[in-house]
Design goal:
The chain is an alpha/beta fold and 497 residues long. The protein is 20% helix and 29% strand. It has a 16-stranded parallel beta sheet that branches. The chain has a nine-stranded parallel beta sheet with strand order 14-17-20-23-26-28-30-33-36, with no helix packed on it. Strands 5-4-1-6-10-7-11 form a seven-stranded mixed beta sheet, with helices on both faces. It binds uridine-diphosphate-N-acetylglucosamine and calcium ion.
């Protein structure tokens, strides 16, 4: 066993009453990711061997989110220069198995650790709260380094805060760590202490298993406090230290306000990473890009853009204002113009989409294609260099290369039998404006569709199809009609009609 290896117990059984939400606290999304996933990823990134998650409130739901993470290996994303790429490498991430341990009633943080059956753990154990989403792998790295360097038996991770709020206070005597005191049990003097307990502990398994059973619930809340481990171990003469961490490590989420603050920090972190990687942003503070998204260098992101769900934008792309991109893949040098909504789509290199386009799941736009304003597509493959410049609905369609779709074209894909049918349009077809294709229908390559047609039958390649009422001309009809009516009735007083 690697002497630097460690296991992690994550406490996540609490309801999070102050969130005033039925969702278990640790499942609330922070910048698009469940809070607890941030903690799990940070621990795994630092090389955690085994993760034990203590679950209670909303157990089934928490398991549903957490257990699949045991299999998912996250790919490296665009990262800040300060975060080494190796962190997210698959070999690191796969190291940490994830097992949930139920805590039947929430009797306190020490009781939660007991629920994780620490008796079966060896080596070094890290215990942390599941509600601190700003923690990063580098924080775990730093803490582990100091723990090993000092050869301590037990360490609590602390931070100095201007407003220590409801966090447990680190009590020292002549500089030496003495105890952690919870706010509900603290004297006025103790409340003035600015050094707080971040809720992270590093402990040798045998030390944990020696003192954990001794913890009592003799406190204001009648809970079993894990914080009492510190006082007990110090009294018994163990080497116990406090390791200082960044302020953000102490930022637990207990309220919606704290969640919103953490969300802001994570979005800012992502923006900084992207700016460092060469992405241009006109006004970064208005751009929201979730952590699992990527943007290539020299791409420009205008204000009010939101990207989520593994959206990948290539290099040299332009994303104009007010665009929403979810699970979108935008290839190099593509341009997404203002107010465009993209969901589960692929946009080929150098294509341009929008303004005001809506491309729905299953749409693929070929390279150099053009999709203009007020065009909606769904499950449509749109070939290279094809154009749909204005006001069209193209659904369940396969459209070839170099096709021109005239303004106001509609694929009538939904039939009275409530089934969806496909429209297939070959390469180089020219579709005149205001055409309807009543699917299922196939248009052969190079065909021309006269504008205003309602096409109900397949059109062979190379043919012209026109399907509209014939135009009738009646020469001088207006003046003749007028003269006829005047001679019959005499001039009319228009105002009386
Ligand atoms: C705890 C610490 C406090 C520290 C703070 C950091 C104790 C007694 N206090 O306080 O010193 O400053 O964290 O955020 O440990 N949980 C369970 N089962 C339980 C109780 C809690 O799993 O029976 C879990 C919660 O889901 C949560 C974590 O433990 O993820 C911390 O619990 P919480 O009630 O938020 O503790 P704090 O009052 O914040
Ligand atoms: Ca907390």
């Amino acid at each position: 066993m690697n002497p630097k290896a460690f296991s992690v117990i994550i406490l996540a059984a609490g309801k999070g009453t102050r969130m005033k939400s039925p969702l278990p606290k640790v499942l609330h999304p922070v910048a698009g990711v469940p809070i607890i996933k941030k903690v799990i990823d940070a621990a795994r990134g630092a090389g955690a061997q085994e993760l034990r998650i203590v679950v209670g409130y909303g157990e089934a739901l928490v398991r549903k989110v957490v257990e699949p993470m045991a299999r998912v290996v996250s790919e490296p994303m665009v990262r800040a220069a300060s975060e080494p790429m190796a962190r997210a490498s698959s070999s690191d991430a796969s190291a940490g198995s994830i097992v949930c341990f139920p805590q039947t009633s929430q009797l306190g943080t020490a009781d939660a650790v007991r629920a994780a059956e620490p008796g079966s753990l060896q080596g070094v154990v890290v215990i942390c709260n599941g509600d601190h989403p700003l923690i990063e792998s580098s924080d775990f790295d730093a803490v582990m380094r100091e723990f090993h360097d000092t050869q301590a038996s037990l360490a609590v991770v602390s931070a100095d805060l201007k407003n220590p709020g409801s966090l447990g206070r680190i009590v020292r005597h002549k500089g030496d760590l003495r105890a952690i005191v919870e706010v509900s049990d603290a004297s006025k003097d103790t409340l003035n202490i600015r050094e707080v307990n971040t809720g992270i502990y590093v402990v040798k398994a045998d030390v944990l298993n020696k003192y954990l059973p001794q913890i009592q619930n003799h406190n204001a809340k009648k809970e079993f406090y894990l914080t009492d481990l510190i006082g007990l171990a110090i009294e018994a003469g163990e080497k116990v230290i406090a390791i200082k961490a960044r302020k953000q490590v102490a930022a637990g989420v207990n309220t919606q306000g704290e969640l919103a603050r953490a969300t802001r920090v994570l979005f800012a972190r992502k923006r900084r990473a992207l700016l460092d990687a060469g992405v241009l942003m006109i006004d970064p503070t208005t751009v929201y890009i979730e952590d699992d998204c990527e943007v290539g260098p020299a791409s420009v992101i205008y204000p009010n853009v939101y990207m989520r769900a593994q959206t990948k934008v290539g290099a040299f792309c332009v994303i104009e204002p007010n665009c929403y991109l979810a699970q979108a893949r935008i290839e190099d040098s593509a341009q997404i113009k203002a107010n465009t909504y993209l969901e589960s789509v692929v946009i080929g290199a150098k294509a341009s989409v929008g303004p005001f386009a809506r491309l729905r799941p299953g749409t693929e736009i070929g390279p150099d294609a053009h999709v203009g304003n007020f065009v909606e597509m769904k499950k449509t493959k749109f070939g290279a260099r094809s154009k749909a410049g204005h006001l069209s609905y193209l659904g369940d369609a396969t459209i070839g290369e170099d096709v021109n779709i005239g303004c106001g074209t509609i694929t009538c894909n939904y039939a009275v039998d409530k089934q969806k049918y496909r429209t297939v349009i070959g390469d180089r077809v020219f579709v005149g404006s205001d055409t309807q294709f009543v699917a299922p229908i196939t248009i052969g390559a190079d065909a021309v569709i006269g504008s205003g047609s309602t096409i109900t039958k397949d059109v062979p390649a190379d043919a012209l199809a026109v399907a509209r009422g014939k135009q009738i001309i009646k020469e001088n009809w207006v003046s003749r009609t007028k003269a006829a009516s005047e001679s019959q009735d005499g001039p009319k007083d228009q105002t009386k009609e």
